Amino acid sequence: MWTHFWDMHSGGGLKEPWQHIYIEAPMEQAKSVFYNRFGHNPDRVTCTCCGNDYSISEEETLADVTWYQRNCDTGWFYVDSDEEVTDMTDERFPQPRGVVWDTDAQQHVVDGRVVECRHVERPSKRALKTERYQTLDEYLQQDILVIYDSEISDYEKSVKVPEQGYIWV
Fold first, then answer.
1. Element (H or E) spanning 29, and its range?
2. Do 113 and 96 touch, CB atoms closer than 8 A?
3. Is 155 in a helix, a strand, or coil?
4. Which of 114, 130, 153, 160 is deepest in the core (most CB within 10 A)?
5. Quick one: CA torsion of 83, 85, 87, 91, rounded to 10 degrees?
6. Where in 79-140 does DSSP place strands (E)?
7. pLDDT over 90 at 121, yes or no
């Protein structure tokens, strides 16, 4: 699992030298690693008018957790065959024709077949002209911080992170 810490600039600037920090660990362990490395809770709220210091998300792979920053496209796929649904209503907002939310099964269905939306390694149709698609290798060359599991001690993963700053209740 990978956890992404995206600095929201709350309080007026970056808390660390990187806007994007990626840690190879499930979210709760990654928060502990973050605290051990930087000395502050990533759930902290520095300024109540600005909101949380970080947007925090978790995905299975580094490619998955970076897809948005790399301007990857999204596509809909049939779960039973892994085939992409190509009959879309609008290129700018790709959703299959006839998509239905099955409330009993809690999943999207097209013509009786289960579909899911996921990122695709190709340029996004919705990106602005100034935003260019990047491969994972290209993206990793930027000024971001990536902390791999092999660089993390067991101690760093297990420390209880104290509450800090303003707390949303």
1. helix 27-38
2. no
3. helix
4. 114
5. -120
6. 99-102, 107-110, 113-123
7. yes
